[in-house]
Amino acid sequence: MTTTSSAPGKVYLFGEHAVVYGEPAVPCAIERRALVTVAGRDDDRVRVSADDLSLDGFTVEYGSSSDGKPDVDVPTPLIEAAMGYVEEALAQARDAADRPDAGFDVEIESEIPLGAGLGSSAAVAVAGIDAATRELGVELDPRDVADRAYQVEHEVQDGQASRADTFCSAMGGAVRVEGDDCETMAAPDLPFVVGYDGASHDTGELVAGVRALRDEFGFASDTVAAIGDLVREGEQALADGDLETLGRLMNFNHGLLSALGVSSRSLDNLVWAARDGGALGAKLTGAGGGGCIVALDEGDGVETALSLSPECEESFSAELATEGVREE
Ligand code: PMV
């Protein structure tokens, strides 16, 4: 038997980084999904193969789940990082089904570039937990999947993770996360356009950088608090379906993230290309450093402007994914 589940990636409309300090954030799921197919095995070994946009494709086979480590060299740091999420997701599924020795063949197909601010690792963790638990005969509520996927990110990212990415991927749509409080929100059609500079980032390192800045300069905490105020304002604009105000607040949010040192030249260039193309607003999404920007655009000028930008590896319009994790 095999089981396939999928879960969407996300963009941050507002609030990344500040969410780590208890401010609210509003991530939105987008129609780019990670698919994880799991087959149970007769032994306790694990075999993982992946075909991801930002990977060339790889297969890794582990020894027994009790020693739990790959018995072949893992080809790149990016793949090593991806394997960490898969290992922990399988551990969560074994725990949920009370089957500590369960072995699995796992196949990952993802439309979401890794480490680029689109929540690829959260989507793989969410879909992986859902598929592996179903394969073991257990069906979890999406909120339980979100909670377990958060434990995965928390473990892999050395405690530096908010619930935002995993809750958004499990539930779909627009969500609001503030500390441990997570809720879904009503949202209008949001015409997102994503620009990708082809780079990947290390979320843990960027989060640590913001923490160091706050420790060095007390006023950096005011910047984090200002992002929280902006998010609260943005929630009202979202409820009103006021795209123009949402766009202005996205621009403001990008400026504050730049002040916290997490933008980059190429992300700034993509943000400006999107604005030149007529965006209502544009900002980096996720941890920053490199990866993706998100813009709001009611026409098609932004996608064209981004595709003409030398820094842009890929641009695409991304519909809000109203469905979160699901069995395929
Ligand atoms: O780039 P991503 O998708 O890993 O997003 C990170 C978002 C942060 O707020 C910086 C960290 C977090 O866990 O919320």
Automatic annotation (TrEMBL):
Top-level enzyme category: transferase
Necessary cofactors: Mg(2+)
Keywords (A to Z) from UniProt: ATP-binding, Cytoplasm, Isoprene biosynthesis, Kinase, Lipid biosynthesis, Lipid metabolism, Magnesium, Nucleotide-binding, Transferase
Principal subcellular localisation of the protein: cytoplasm
Catalytic residues, chain numbering: D165
Domain of life of the source: Archaea
EC number: 2.7.1.36
One BP annotation, GO: galactose metabolic process
Residues that coordinate or bind ATP: P113, L114, G115, A116, G117, L118, G119, S120, S121, A122, A123
Sequence ranges assigned to domain Galactokinase N-terminal in this UniProt record: 5-39
NCBIfam families: mevalon_kin
Function: Catalyzes the phosphorylation of (R)-mevalonate (MVA) to (R)-mevalonate 5-phosphate (MVAP). Functions in the mevalonate (MVA) pathway leading to isopentenyl diphosphate (IPP), a key precursor for the biosynthesis of isoprenoid compounds such as archaeal membrane lipids.
Quaternary structure and partners: Homodimer.
Protein name: Mevalonate kinase
Organism: Halobacterium bonnevillei
